[in-house]
Amino acid sequence: MARTVLNGPDDNPRLGALLRRLAGSASTNIGFPAAVDLDYRTLGPFLGHLLNNVGDPAFDPTHPNHTKEFEREVLAFFAGLFRAPEPWTGYVTSGGSESNLSALYLARSRYPDGIVLHSAAAHYSIPKATHLLGMPTVVVRTQPNGEIDYDDLVGHAELHRRRPIIVVANIGTTMTEAVDDVAYIQDLLADVGVRHRHIHSDAALSGIPLALSDDPPGFDLADGADSICISGHKFLGTPMPCSVVIARHHDPDHRGDVVAYTGSPDTTITGSRNGLAALMLWAVLQQLGRSGLRARAESGRNMAQYAHQRLHDIGWPSWRNPHALTVVLRTPPPAILARWPLPTLAGLSHFICMPGVTRRQVDQLTAGLAAVTPAVTSGCASH
Ligand SMILES: Cc1ncc(COP(=O)(O)O)c(C=O)c1O
């Protein structure tokens, strides 16, 4: 049967205008963390097929239109990268929010009377997930760099030490890319006598580049996390949102029944899942491998260091956390923000040197700021 070929940007003016808008904004779009150095368009032929990885990734579904064999390799890659002991579980999700929801759902299954502690800098998907799951939650203060305040954490943990405690650690906060120390948090909870504990590392932003740095902080499963998530559309720059969640499998014998018509147990938050996203993750991982990813992480960190230095040179207050691709700076005036859309909160803004961000972009932004620098009188300190 002949298929109807849909009009593309050359034939439909609305689509043409959208494509021009996207292309036109690319050179100044450095405020949001999406790598732009990888081109996934060679996988275009797969757009001719529905790819639906419905249900548990370990079970091939009854239909043939899936990429679960590729998904399983993606999961094994990340289980290795984040040193997950056997048995582990996980799947490719629709994004960081679903990964966090899935991880907290697992934590709640393990500890139904657990209380969740997360810092004020946690991503908004964390309080949303605890609200959806009906889990009691305590918000812990942060330090000025965005890292969790360990003294405040201990204070709350002491108050609740007879209950299971579930901590969500930020492995790269959204605004400042601060990293909470999972190994240290485990020690602190043990010291105050919390017997039942579960730590989820929300590593959506920084998990991959951190795991590939020479001296990573303690954040993965060998460091004491029980689950971890990373984002696919950030450091790996997939053209559609996606994410991976990996967790210790505390109950490997229980996956639930196979749903007869899908052929897979219903262990995932959504039923139908994006098989093209899993395939794209596989393609980038198998082509670049750890060494290629490490080189990209390194070049992003070098670019962030360069950007920080350039801002320092022109006297614009800025700083960055150790290892971070994110440069935090005093919020530029509206004229600069109109050209450079930078996320902004309480007088601070940031841009992120994801792979693909160039010196030219950094130099152009800095030149714009240099032109208004005399107006700067006070603000965030430059470290
Ligand atoms: C630290 C962190 N966690 C979770 C998320 C949620 O990811 P998504 O927007 O893919 O749901 C983000 C996204 O910005 C994030 O930065």
Structure description:
- The protein is α/β, with parallel strands linked by helices and 383 residues long.
- It has 2 domains: 26-38 and 289-375, Alpha-Beta Complex (Aspartate Aminotransferase, domain 1), CATH 3.90.1150.10; 43-287, Aspartate Aminotransferase, domain 2, CATH 3.40.640.
- The protein is built from 10 helices and 11 strands.
- The protein has helices spanning 13-25, 68-81, 96-110, 125-133, 150-159, 182-191, 207-211, 275-314, 334-339, 359-372, and strands at 88-93, 115-119, 137-140, 165-170, 197-202, 227-231, 243-248, 318-319, 326-330, 344-345, 348-352.
- It has a 7-stranded mixed beta sheet, with helices on both faces. It has a 4-stranded antiparallel beta sheet with strand order 8-9-11-10, with helices on one face.
- The longest helix has 40 residues, at 275-314.
- The N and C termini lie far apart (65 Å).
- 45% of the residues are buried.
- The protein binds pyridoxal-5'-phosphate.
- Pyridoxal-5'-phosphate binds at residues 95-97, 100, 123, 125, 172, 174, 202, 204-205, 231, 241, 243.
- Pyridoxal-5'-phosphate binds next to helix 3.
Rg over alpha carbons: 22 Å
State the CATH superfamily name of the largest domain.
Type I PLP-dependent aspartate aminotransferase-like (Major domain)
Number of domains: 2
Which parts are unreliable, with pLDDT below 50 for 5 consecutive residues or more?
Answer: 377-383
